[in-house]
Amino acid sequence: MKKIINDVSVVEEEMISGLVKANPDVLSKIEDELIVIRKNPKKDKVAIVTGGGSGHEPAHAGYVGYGMLDAAVAGAVYTSPSVDAIATGIRAVDSGKGTLLIIKNYTGDIINFEMAAEEVEEDDNIMTRKVIVTDDVAVENSTWTAGRRGVAGTVFVHKIAGAKAESGADLDEVAATAQRVVDNVRTMGMAINPSTIPAAGIPGFTLGEDEMEVGIGIHGEPGVRKQKLTSANEIADILLEKILADLDYNHSEVAVMVNGCGGTPLMELYIVYNHLADVLKEKGIRIYKSFVGNYMTSLEMEGFSISLLKLDDEMKQLLDEKAETPAFKM
Question: What pLDDT sits at residue 43?
Fold first, then answer.
């Protein structure tokens, strides 16, 4: 295993500290915690809190800032943050208007976020609502989940719910908007090489030189099937076919995300997008806005995912609103 690290026991702490030091005007870190919060939060607004295991950078802390998240709570690599840490994060950004928890559908995340919500509601009288992101069309159940996984489409939830909260909407309105995004976003991914958790030292799965894994998640777990590696255009078609079969996108306007898994060159992501844009045009699906890059990664995994968000007028407006975070600017 080759990693540019100091010690496997402190990779998460050093990563979070480095992120905050690199963005001192935007971010703060809670001492002795893997929690990143907004440097100058807006008062009297609904707070938005999310989190999960490390290894998905820039998610989640890279999306803390104006127009998106108020706090991101990190765990160890691919490991849910603790109940205590999540509760600390919620308390740190509460402004009296309630907190929306955006939770990817992984069993550990759901259990810990729900327990933290109960704690702050009982002990601190902080109102909470939650949305559970289930955008992955690859599997209905997995080792990590009951039901569909939450993957790169979560970034659209962060952006649109964040803009709604920034507008002064109340907690129920922000939660309803976030849920509408969840209901209208679908994602499918693939990989040609796995990731290696620093503390484990071995890849999450193995592939032959001529193989690819279709339907991968974001925790280094294998996908739904291995198959022979094929061209970028054909891979995009495989992923897109599954997405379009799951939700009616006919005559829709969409936001498109081609998300790198961490080790994929931008050259390859743009090759994928080149074909994807043509196919969507042929199908009469209008692209309103596109995002190509690393938005929710899996360490150094080589691969990508496609996310399509079916937009309505309000979602378009909120997607266009200002965001000022380390990893996402509008």
Answer: 85
CA distances from 90 to 71, 99, 109, 119, 169 (A): 7, 7, 15, 10, 18
Q: Please indicate whether residue 56 is annotated as part of the active site.
A: yes
Per annotation, catalytic residue among 56, 158, 251, 275 = 56
CB 73 within 8 A of CB 117: no
Is residue 38 within a helix (H) or strand (E), and if so which, with residue range?
strand 35-38
172 by DSSP, 3-state: which? helix
Given the residues 60, 158, 219, 251, select the one marked as catalytic: 219
CA distance 292 to 236: 14
Domains of the chain: 8-180 (3.40.50.10440), 185-320 (3.30.1180.20)
pLDDT in tens, 262-307: 999 999 999 999 999 999 999 999 999 999 999 999 999 999 999 9
pLDDT digit string (tens) for 182-198? 999 999 999 999 998 89
